[in-house]
Structures are given as structure tokens and as C-alpha cells.
Amino acid sequence: MKKDDFIFGFYPVLEALEAGATLDKIFIHQGSDMQRFETIINIAAQREIPVNSVPLVKLDKLTRSNHQGIVAYLSPVSFLSLEDLVLEQEQKKSPGLFIILDQLTDARNFGGIIRTAECTGVNGIIIQKTGGAPVNADTVKTSAGAVFNVPICKVDHVKDAIYYLQGSGYKVFGASEKATDSYFHCDFKGSTTIVMGSEGKGISKSVLGLLDGLISIPMLGKTKSLNVSVAAGAILFEVLRQRSH
User: Fold this and answer.
1) Is pLDDT above 50 for 1?
2) How confident is the model at residue 229 (pLDDT cuts 50, 70, 90)?
3) Contact 101, 125 (CB under 8 A)
């Protein structure tokens, strides 16, 4: 983490919140007197910023300065609500295309997906508020600045986002090497959402049962799976190919 990725100390974090700065998440030492941080926690809750209790060693690794038991990640971008994201696309009167990242954790993979998404006409990327990769300097760098051109939405739960999108007329497909249907045979011409899972575990079991279908990428070599960023790119360019004809 670089110096401009985070702020630390009670008053700097409080002042940032009161000034309306976009914070990605807040870490508080789990041994602290939480009443001391009550104002910060309340403002964070109102603005739906995750607050996590962490061991002191984690905060010490982030900064060797006097962090006073609190460190906050600064986000370089602002986030849209899911409702605004869908409404904005509906006004364009063309088939929408969204990506849901289910617990993706690597900021560089996240940035790579954002870069490809911007190149293929994706209308927005949906991530969960907790457990996923942060939108930080590594994300911005790997995305080659595309993160500023693709709307990003944070939701409490991926499952709720899927329900909402399906209710808004979207077909939601999950990418999995275990799927029997090739993505070449999937119709992406209508409003579509693609779900990509985490690097190690893939799509969560609780999410799999909600999808309209699973799609796979044909593989000829001995390697069983692709990097998630590469896999997302292959699928998104197939969507672009179908919509270009």
C-alpha cells in the first residue's frame, strides 16, 4: 500500500469522513475502546463504509507511524448504487452488459478486468462491499486508468444484486470450468450479466443456484483453468462479437 492509498489516526479519519471523502474501508484495532471511535463508526455506517476490527499487527504493517488504532483506505473513485446503475442503462435504450465479481481478491486481476470491460462496452461492474479486492492504486494502475471510465457499484450481497438484475430483465450467466455449455453457444445479445468467481474457489455455491446458466471456455491444453482476468476478457469479447453482427 502506498502513502496516498490510506490515512491513519483518529482525527485525520474523522475529518476525511466529515469532508465527504470516499473511503473504501476502515480498520480499527480490535483491542481498542470502541466508544472512542463511536462517531467514526456511526458516520461510516450512514455512508455504508465497511468497518473491520483487526489485530494490532495488521495496522502496524500498514504504517509504522502512530496510527492510534485506526487506518482507512482511500478510494480513488466514487461508487454508484445498483438502482442508479440499472436506471442509467435503461435510459440508453440498448441491451445492458454488467459484470459481477464474486469475492475476487486480487487488485491486479480486478484492474485487468476493468480495463477489458471498458474496451468491450461493459456498462458497470458490481462488487460486494466486503471480502473483495479494494479499489486502490494497484487497481488504477493495472486498469490503465479505465477505472475512471467504467461505473463501479458496491452491494451488500451479490445474491441480492442478481435478484434485482433478473427482475430488471437481465440474464445472469456464471463462468465456470465445470460448466458443460461453451460460451460460444450462449446468446449474449439481450441484456446480460456475467458473474466471475474468486481466483481460488470460483463462484460461491450460494450464488450458483441463482444463475440463469453456467458457461465454460473450451480448453485444449493440460492447464485446467485460466486466470480470471483472461477468462473475463475472452467472454467479454465474445459478447462484443455477437453484438457487432
Assistant:
1) no
2) very high
3) yes
CB–CB of 134/111 below 8 Å?
A: no
| Nearest of 175, 221, 219 to residue 194 by alpha carbon | 175
pLDDT tens-digit profile of 72-111? 988 778 788 999 999 999 999 899 999 999 989 888 899 9
- Reduce the DSSP state of residue 65 to 3 states and report it: coil
User: pTM score > 0.85 for this model?
Assistant: no
CA 123 to chain centre: 14
HEC profile for 185-237? HCCCCCCEEEEECECCCECCHHHHCCCCEEEECCCCCCCCCCCHHHHHHHHHH
Are 232 and 196 spatial neighbours (Cβ–Cβ below 8 Å)? yes
4 — pLDDT class (breaks 50, 70, 90) = low
- Torsion on CA atoms 207, 209, 210, 213, rounded to nearest 10: 110
Q: Is 86 helix (H, G, I), strand (E, B) or coil?
A: helix
Residue with cell 455449455: 181
